[in-house]
Amino acid sequence: MYQKKPGVFMADWWDADGKRHRKQFASSGAAREHEHRETALAHAERATREMKLAGKKGGVKRSPARVVESGTIEPAKGKLGVMIPGMGAVATTFVAGVEAIRQGIAKPIGSLTQMGTVRLGKRTDGRSPKIKEFVPLAGLDDLVFTGWDIFEDNMYEAASNAGVLDQRLLDQLKPFLSTITPRPAVFDHNYVKKIDGPNVKKGKSKMDLAEQVRADMRDFKKTSGASRLITMWCGSTESYIEPTAAHQSVKSFEKALRENDENIAPSMIYAYASLMEGVPFANGAPNLTVDLPVMLELSRKNEAPICGKDFKTGQTLIKTVLAPMFKARLLGLSGWYSTNILGNRDGEVLDDPGSFKTKEESKLGVLDHILQPALYPELYGNIFHKVRINYYPPRGDNKEGWDNIDIFGWLGYPMQIKVDFLCRDSILAAPIVLDLVLLVDLAKRCSELKGLGIQEWLSFYFKSPMTAPGLYPEHDLFIQLMKLKNTLRHLKGEELITHLGLEYYD
Ligand SMILES: NC(=O)c1ccc[n+]([C@@H]2O[C@H](COP(=O)([O-])OP(=O)(O)OC[C@H]3O[C@@H](n4cnc5c(N)ncnc54)[C@H](O)[C@@H]3O)[C@@H](O)[C@H]2O)c1
């Protein structure tokens, strides 16, 4: 289901013969209901046919629930073009990692799509396929890459400068990495104050710049032979801004692009270009970028999924594991002080108060949403929560994050937890990028997901997950994981797992 224009909603479904249908409705509810009914009918019909066929052939009867997927997910045929604005530490660690895995010299550790499994049916069924075997994902060999950056370094040089991966590994990958050179970027120094570079597009207006990015995308598709594209923002964190009138609709946004409105950040220009081309956009930084009505409208209209924001890697990953435990055990929290030192370019950019404010907003929301102080005022009504990020060059990408957590238990007795996480930022981020690329591409090929706009089922990967307007985000890592896996089960017509389990004791 998607909104064609205000007040016009389109139900969109495939029948049992794989033929696509669309019908117009005046409300989203009616369109969605129609779509669900027709899809269910198609599934039932297909299942009946399959069972009849199996019966005739004397084959094993499959449960109807397991034959519904075909016709609703297009196969991952051909190459998938990955376009990355921002070819810095995260982007190069991801691309170099994919190439190292393709060459068989490394393993995709940390990637749910590559190493994770999904349990199907009952615990006694013994069915736990790998996720990549359960749903049709693009294979790593089918990924091709391009990107934009304000610096001219190719991926080999950029990865060497980032200093995340061992130079010997990078030298082995040099023939591949050095072929990926950045296209000139759309950049505005006012949005990222700490850096400046020469590889920047010039244009009469922001609309002109958006047209240039769209031309880049078409050029990449043609030259790489990709059958599908996805844009993955790995650029620097932009200065904090609030949405304005310019961001409220496609019409007002396009007017603002033509008038060079200062409220349009470079990341929004890439997002607009992408969605106009019908290409999904995932946002790894805390910038608003696609958290705007204009982008939601475009995403639904052009069936280009969006998701974000801000990769959930180091400290917030730990926070979204510990905080649900406190709430589960009804342990109170009086204070949480988080501080980091890091010395990569991201750290330098975040040294600017404008960019830090964007990051701070993204990091601070987590505790409130998990702990729900309105429901548990005695436990979480008075929390002192502070997040600091300090730029400290000697550490490079090897961040250190300290957490001091003041909790209280039975009868109010205080306790403390200290966490010292010596992590590697981009090593934690790279598998997230890989999973997002593959899962967002899956969403784009999936009749039920591609017109939804926001892909909330991918919250698992983000510090500040996007949700439908009016819905609070789910931050608990394990609820997010369950949501993701249940979405995959649902897409394939498998039973959802509720963990009720009473049937084992009948
Ligand atoms: N590494 C992590 O764990 C992590 C976690 C969450 C979010 N992030 C976010 O991911 C992003 C990338 O992180 P990183 O460590 O790779 O940073 P980085 O500084 O190494 O790379 C960012 C790159 O973006 C480029 N850039 C900036 N503005 C651009 C524009 N308008 N167009 C094209 N390129 C542009 C910069 O020149 C730089 O090369 C940052 O926004 C960061 O906050 C990273």
Please supply descriptive tags for the structure shown above.
16 helices; alpha/beta; 13 strands; binds nicotinamide-adenine-dinucleotide; six-stranded parallel sheet; 506 residues; four-stranded mixed sheet; 39% helix
Structural notes for this entry:
The strands form 3 sheets. Strands 6-5-4-7-8-9 form a 6-stranded parallel beta sheet, with helices on both faces. It has a 4-stranded mixed beta sheet with strand order 11-10-12-13. A 3-stranded antiparallel beta sheet has the order 1-2-3. The protein starts with a strand and ends in a 15-residue tail after the last helix. It contains 16 helices and 13 strands. Helix 8 packs across helix 10. Helix content is 39%, strand content 17%. About 4% of the residues have low confidence. Strand 1 and strand 2 form a beta hairpin. With 506 residues, the protein is of the alpha/beta class. The chain binds nicotinamide-adenine-dinucleotide (NAD). Nicotinamide-adenine-dinucleotide binds next to helix 2, strand 5, helix 12 and helix 15.
